Amino acid sequence: NTSSGSNSLDVLIVGAGFGGLYQLHYLRKLGFHCKVVDNASELGGIWYWNCYPGARVDSDIPLYEYSIEDLYKDWTWSERFPSWSELRRYFAYVDKKLDLSKDVILNTGVVSADFDTKTSRWNVHLSTGETYDTKFFVLCTGFAAKRHEPNFKGREKYEGICHHTAVYPQEGIDVKGKKVAVIGTGASGVQCIQEIGPEVSHLTVLQRTPNLCLPMCQKKLDPKTEATEKENGNYQKIFDYRRDTFGGFHFDFAKRDGNEDTAEQQREFYEKLWNGGGFRFWLATYQDCLFDKSVNDTAYAFWAEKTRARINDPVKKDILAPLLEKQHHTFGTKRPSLEQRYYEVYNQDNVDVIPLKETPIDTFTEKGIKFKDGKELDFDIIILATGFDSVTGGLVQIDIKGTDGVSLADKWSKGTWTNLGMTTAGFPNMFFLYGPQGPTAFANGPTIVELQGDWIVRCIKYVHEHNHETIDATAEAEALWTKHVAELCDKTLFPGTDSWYMGANIPGKPRESLNYAGGIPRYVRECREKEDKGYEGFIFDKSYGIGKG
Ligand code: NA7
């Protein structure tokens, strides 16, 4: 225990989602005095905020849950891809089992933090005006903690209801019989559109880029079957296996290239992946699909054929699922979303789609939106499904100052620098997970927060047991890791697509690979190697000038 007063901690953790609660549980078990701080009024992280109609997870059960403490044994999911409300109930269940809430400070934001070079401790300032001092500072803010609300002209004039999906009212909005616009067709837009389409009087979807959606193949789960699966050890097998696959799923890329198969074999293979549902068509496909454009083209053409067949109107068909010759981006280099009845919704007479690249928004008006072609549409409700300042936004929105007084936002203003995707030089005893330069983008949260979480917990334990005051990444190691992440990405097709993986969804954000593209097993091995060499690439008890020898 390194803390001394009531506001003195060993570890302050930001975020009460999967990542933060995992840290709390294991660090507390080791005897550390910890608190989690979160803006929300309940546990759940992303699942607290994202309660828009149809919000649900896109990883199959039991991938998307904790593998620890036999929690799975007494919890039964009702659907293969659970909704936000079921995930919220899951968090309440985990809370009860692990007795977490007593160490969670809710309804409270972390506003700023600065490292005191005299005491080698972090001072963390909360929205309540309180300050905590802590030896370790662990940011578990997730990859989507800062929403992106584009600066639409005239937004303030609009008098109807307008919400971003990430701050959708907890009590919901009655959309029945209303004229609604949804801007954005990422995962949030797709889920919301397919849910409200059948309820509203009119829905207008404003699409900038088509989403290359895959069939979710949702199904209700039978509790008896699940109980048998658990008894047979199949949940545990999946938990073990997810750590060994590229993306943390219970399937992996095929160990062959696309052109090893004939066109007929390819088709048969794609059909199988397609019918399996979920991300199989993305992450269990040919191993070179995200590397070789000619192979990727075969996947795209298959996707377009399948999808176009579901859309009746020829104009909507071209907007939503363009042919290969007119594709906006290669398949899988933007995260595909899983859909249930998304394309069928567009066959309803009351649902329109406007392609924003051809018909851009001019301004919001008092009653709706005016387009550059002069058309004006009135809406009772406008839903902004415009995504997030992903991966780094949640970290840099907190004013964190390191050893030389430079803020994290300034350090990363022209590009992100990390060592192992969990630390950054000049910010000693500070860790983050499910963030930049880790295997965040393809994978699912629980898998990553357990793997990175274990590394962080072991590192904190090591620092403590070896009586070190601080651990800090070296600038050299960080430069090497950052280069390594860029090189891995450059071999793939990802750099060619504007996506949040590349920071390209936010105006002015540096374009770079925010994601480690080497897959989970390689990532874990690389982190473990540094650890086994006594934390190679890190420096202990560095002198930071003032107050130190
Ligand atoms: P995404 O996937 O980033 O989607 C945001 C959507 O909003 C996307 O279609 C964007 O179009 C669109 N967008 C963004 N800015 C604008 C402006 N200025 N005008 C019009 N349209 C815009 O966020 P989600 O919330 O859907 O999903 C985030 C992740 O959460 C998802 O990947 C899952 O992992 C879970 P664009 O494609 O950039 O042209």
UniProtKB/TrEMBL annotation:
Protein species of origin: Coleophoma crateriformis
Cofactor: FAD
Keyword Nucleotide-binding: no
PANTHER family for the chain: L-ORNITHINE N(5)-MONOOXYGENASE-RELATED
Keywords for the protein's UniProt record, in alphabetical order: FAD, Flavoprotein, Monooxygenase, NADP, Oxidoreductase
Family indicated by similarity: Belongs to the FAD-binding monooxygenase family.
Example GO molecular function: monooxygenase activity
Pfam families: Pyr_redox_2
Protein name in UniProt: FAD/NAD(P)-binding domain-containing protein
InterPro entries recorded: FAD-binding_Monooxygenases, FAD/NAD-bd_sf, FAD/NAD-binding_dom
Domain FAD/NAD(P)-binding per the UniProt entry, residue ranges: 10-233
